[in-house]
Amino acid sequence: MSRWKLALVIIAVLLLAVLGWRLWQGGPASPGGAPGMRGGGPDAPIPVTVVMAESADVPVYLNALGTVQALNTVTVNAQVAGQLKAIHFEEGEEIKEGALIAEIDPRTFQATLDQAVAKQKQDQAQLSASRSTLQRYEELIKQHFVSAQDLENQRQAVRQQEAMVAADAAAVANARTQLGYTRITAPITGVAGIRQIDAGNLIAASGAGIVTLTQVHPINVIFTLPQQDLEAVRRAGGGELPVTALDRSDSHALAEGVLKVVDNSIDPQTGTFRLKAEFANEDTRLWPGQFVNIRLETRVVRGGLVIPVQAVQRGPDSTYVYKLAEDDTVAVQPIQTGEDADGGRVVVTEGLAAGDRIVTEGQFRLKPGAKVLALAPGESAPAPAADAANAQAPNGMRRR
After folding, report:
1. Distance between CA atoms of residues 400 and 397, nearest Å
2. What number of other Cβ atoms are within 10 A of residue 272's Cβ?
3. Angle between helices 148-180 and 107-140 (to 10 degrees)
4. What angle (nearest 5°) sits at the alpha carbon of residue 204, between those of residues 178 and 77?
5. 56, 96, 99, 303: which has the highest count of C-beta atoms within 10 A?
6. 3-state SS track over 48-66
7. C-beta atoms surrounding 161 within 10 Å
8. pLDDT in tens, 177-216
9. Taking the CB of residue 155, how many other CB atoms lie within 10 A of it?
């Protein structure tokens, strides 16, 4: 055997000797006893999180995805054609009802109104003269100075001129209305969108509009529910049920409102029906076109028994929970569940009573009759004694 091979063998023997000595000095590689076990061996209590079943008033909800919709949407159009003289709003601002939005050049319409007023005055003067003539004819006929035919002709002339004056009044009113249309005002209180036309352009009465106003105070949310929920909604009274709009993660409530409308038919293609809820939206957290999660409260279960939903286990034959006995051992307890409650809880209809202790975390290590260490939610298991002793040993040495 060559010298370098002999050196390798000697080094390997020395390494094995050192490793064996360290294992003999340090004991098992896993801290606290047998390999892979902590906390005093296989018979040590299993730490689990435990809560009590409690009685509470439980609101029953129906959940859906909804779309925010403006209460009213109006596209502001010109009602007369002309040159757009001025724009009096800012994009994105909230405009009050009746506020001036834009102006069209009024000169042509003012001239038309002046002509109508002049024509009305002319016809009124002619009517006044005809009435004076008719009055003289009525006096002269008594003296037989005019014929009955002349009197009747004069009466007809007065009637015609009265009709002309009435037509003139209508023409004046129409011209004044057309002139008023040159001042375009907001028909509702709403938020202005993006401007569709600039000042100086010619605008037509049938054009695309100047701006769109959307009313967001209050605001609507449209959502759908499956047809099997229709009876629950109708049994609850249909309208004015409490509705909550939540963000897409279901973690924050955006607004509180009420149910306003249940649609009068079910969509045969989707098997759903539509509903409309109204929200005051005073802080403008809802915006048209936004998607939100909707929670519709249909009723309240008084004195319902509730447990955290993570405590519920599902087996091949039934739904069950792990229930703690007085000696801190667990047993499988079959249960029947009902509606979901808020806060990640579920209503239990059979199998438990108020005050029963049940396991909510750590079930995967349990079996019937297992000894457990009951911990409150958020509480951590105490450190094993062996770990504490090793932590106190000097110079980083483990105790044998």
Report:
1. 9
2. 19
3. 160
4. 75
5. 56
6. EEEEECEEEEEEEEEEEEE
7. 19
8. 999 999 999 999 999 999 999 999 999 987 788 999 999 9
9. 14
53 forms bridges with which residues in the sheet? none
Q: In 3D, which of 280, 289, 95 has the Cα closest to residue 191?
A: 95
Please tell me the class of the 62-71+215-301 domain: mainly beta
Question: What's the maximum distance between 2 C-alpha atoms anywhere in the chain?
Answer: 170
Which of 310, 378, 301 lies closest to 341 in space, CA to CA? Answer: 301
Residue ranges covered by each domain of the chain: 46-57+302-375, 62-71+215-301, 106-181
> 106-181 domain in CATH 3.90.550?
no
Q: What is the CA radius of gyration of the chain?
A: 44
Give the single-character DSSP code of 99.
-
Contact 211, 197 (CB under 8 A): no
Amino acid at 374: A
d(CA 221, CA 382): 51
Q: Which helix (H) or strand (E) holds 277?
A: strand 272-279
At position 101, the amino acid (one-letter code) is I
- Cβ burial of 386 (10 Å; 0-12, 13-18, 19+) is middle
Q: Which secondary-structure segment (H or E) carries 97? A: none
Token readout for 374 is 């009951």
Top mean-pLDDT range of 91-100, 141-150, 381-390? 91-100
pLDDT for 312-348, tens place per residue?
998 888 899 999 988 889 999 999 888 777 778 888 9
Cα 351 from Cα 367, distance rounded (Å): 19
- DSSP assignment of 285-326 equals ---TT-EEEEEEEEEEEEEEEEEEGGG-EE-SS-EEEEEE-T
**What pLDDT shows up at residue 24?**
60
Cα distance between residue 21 and residue 28, in whole Å: 13
Region at 257 (left for phi over 0; alpha for psi -120 to 50; beta for the rest):
beta
238: left (phi over 0), alpha (psi -120 to 50) or beta: left
Predicted local distance difference test score (pLDDT) of residue 21: 66
- When the pLDDT of each residue in the chain is averaged and rounded to a whole number, the result is 85
Architecture of domain 46-57+302-375: Beta Barrel (2.40)
Residue 375: pLDDT band with limits 50, 70, 90: confident
Q: What is the DSSP letter of 28?
A: -
d(CA 304, CA 360): 19
